[in-house]
Amino acid sequence: MWDTKRKNGRVLVAFGLTIVFLTIHSSFLPRYLDNTIPTPRQCASLRASLEPSSDFIASRNTLGSDRFVEGTPPVLIRNAKILTGARNGTEIVFGDILLDKGLVIGVGYIPNALTRLPHLRVVDAGGKWISPGIVDAHSHLGVYSAPALNGASDGNSMKSPIQPWLRSLDGLNTHDDAYKLAIAGGVTTAQILPGSANNIGGQAFLIKLRPTAERSASAMLLEPPLTLLLNSSDTRPKYRHMKHACGENPSRSYGQTRMDSAWEFRRAYDQARQIKEAQDSFCAAAEQGLWDGQTPFPENLQREALVDVLRGRVKLSVHCYEAVDLDALMRLSNEFKFPIASIHHAGETYLVPDLLKKAWGGVPSIALFASNFRKKREAYRGSEFAPRILADNGLPVIMKSDHPVLNSRHLMYEAQQAHYYSLNPALALASVTAVPANALGVGWRVGMLASGYDADLVIWDSHPLALGATPVQVYIDGIPQLSSPAMLHKPAPFQDVPVTPSWEQEVKDTIKFEGLPPLAGRSTTGSVLFVNVSQVWTRGGGGGAVTSLLTADEPAHDWQVLVQRGAIQCFARADARRGECAARGYSADAQIVDLMGGALAPGLTTFGSDLGLSAIMLEPSTTDGRVFDPLTMVVPSILGDSVIRAVDGLQFGGRNTLYAYRGGVTTAVVAPMGHGFLQGLSVAFATGASNALVHGAILKSETALHISVHSEMLASVSTQIGALRNLLFSRSSLGAWSRVKNGEIPLVIKVHNADIMATLLHLKGEFDALSTSSLRMTFAGATEAHLLAAEIGAAGVSVILAPARPYPATWDQRRILPGPPLSRKTSVVTLLEHGVNVALGVQSDYDARNARFELAWAALDSDGVIDHKTAMALSTNNMDKALGLDHITLHGEDLVIYQGGGVFDFDSKVIGVASGRRAVVELF
């Protein structure tokens, strides 16, 4: 009895001290969610399980999904190959799938009794693949809307580094043009995060992407937390979501150091801890019958979400790259005892897997890009092999978009690349379905296909891990989302999981060199005999059209190709090599390389990024810097009328440049860095050269003159056109402008808007009518060029599409031709059909390495219109013509060496370059 009184006394003392503390410290004065006095039931809710009960699941299976739309008919999809996501993602069911009341009713064999539902719609999948709907764990859909306009950008608040009270839902634009694009890529669920400018940016929310009858942001929510008070009858507790950020972004936004950031986190969590302890003391007293019915429950509206983090009721997503930040994050989670659901961007996580296992409450999932690295210091050691290495160490891997950094429509492409670089195929598919769903606390209803799960699925035209896989239909809550989708007919090999190359040595080197493995190859001027060759493509050493050395009637065979000093000396079938190749210099001591059915093909040319002028985009000291724009800036008098040349600022050996080289891109064309009207003269250089003095490093020092015309500049569009008109028609034009007027070099205009292009075409017509030479004009960017395809073709203007796959990022780019499944044709096909010389460019340095996959994707999306030769031309002959390289006399050519397959295959990898320009063979 005495012990009980003493215990009750301690509780009363603790409760009294808590109330005194809260009264004295004004920052913790009570804030109320309503005007009623809380009851002990509020204490009970703190411990209520957030996992759905078996009773709830049973009721849901009977009544249907909370997102079911009355009147939606049941759907039976027959004759499919279903990737259910079960058995660690390995299960494949051949059969049918039944959807009703917003749920999956059955998968595989569907009893006849279940197929007698009224108004049942039957869909024949024709043996196609079905996967769960894609879950994007890191998206800014709706808060960074397309097209980007000042009134529709709500991703970051710059009020304070710590803002857990903000909610992305309050800025969710329901008119974002990207929703339908993401659905067309198979995305059905997304976590909408605040931006990363703050250490604590606010609360995130899960949404389903389909349109709703209510047309509100709230109606899109999946598992809305009770704190939103949307439905008073819904009393089931649910997880909340929140965004944190470490490293460069908050430091850059608020002038912090990492030490400042760590303290901001600790101070915020210490305040939340004190509130939590006050609540626990209150509830302990109430549960002992010591609550007076009048004393309010202690809470703080600005900190209540952080208190929920400490209670494990928030799925926390943390933007964090480097080991130093990850270490601080692990210490923070253990100091304040809260779990971390997922770490995002996570560039160095693969280097410290054991550290991540120290997170309080369990191992976090790791959300990654596939190849988007090196734009800032903390991303410099990012690796394409990170998913594989993390999986080998038992950490769950998520591939994410960070939309609009990457268009979430192509999130499956991130999983495809992860698989290409050796992530297990089941884990690659799970990285955009089950794993993000589990990390977000909704793995019991989305991310898999099984009885009782949400009726979210994608029917694909090929295996979803095959390059260019395109949805045939997308269901969200059992409702089909694509109206009259354009159907593609994919080749048979694309119906199977791609057989990807071996990367075992590269994985070991990545770990050994902490993300910075040596990228230089081994060069030889001697003889190299390539055996087991299936394709040989060449441009004849002089920049001509791409042609095959094997005639059309020659079957794929065991060919052998002899190369000396980087040039092909002979090619023959295996049984003939001793004759023909011996006569041309074959010797027994030649190095023999087995291409395993691989190919030799011309090196590709990239354009559109700052490759060669920038090592780390956001680190000014690693770039050439921005040029002065005479239209919008005061240009130093010392420059006079000179036009800036990119060749003068070239940097060789950058990692993005060398990765492009190792990806089959042997030539890069880059213009001076700048976003104003006048950029300057571009240069063409060899990506594999070590410096500008190496023979063949500079292919052409001045290729084209580059300007930009767009509506986002300080000067009006009409002012920009007026300046161009003056430069073209002024008799005093000298130097570069004189060469443009004489037709010696092209004028490359970065422009996206069709109306501006129309004005430029009219200006070209005026010039050509008054001049003895025709103006060589190229549109770069050119998102809306398809609207003027006939006029552009008639004017003889070239087009470089960048990005290759369109996105309505700005007002000038809003009228895209999206391609299948949303449109039958693509911009590439439309332009080619009108005789336009069209090429494919890039926008980011890191993406140059993926040029060959972009060409393959363009061919696949053309549904047979673009053949192998035409696809190659998009980054060779056509690019050369558009940029003024078509008249260069090249002494030899660069042939890229592919092992295991052809230029466009996920089966192949680049293992070297046979450079006739430099008279060497370089093997990686």
From TrEMBL:
Pfam families xref list: Amidohydro_1
Coiled-coil residue spans: none
InterPro entries (alphabetical): Amidohydro-rel, DHOase/Allantoinase_Hydrolase, Metal-dep_hydrolase_composite, Metal_Hydrolase
Amidohydrolase-related domain sequence ranges: 386-465
GO cellular component, one term: cytoplasm
One of the GO BP terms on file: purine nucleobase catabolic process
A molecular-function term among this protein's GO annotations: allantoinase activity
Protein name: Amidohydrolase-related domain-containing protein
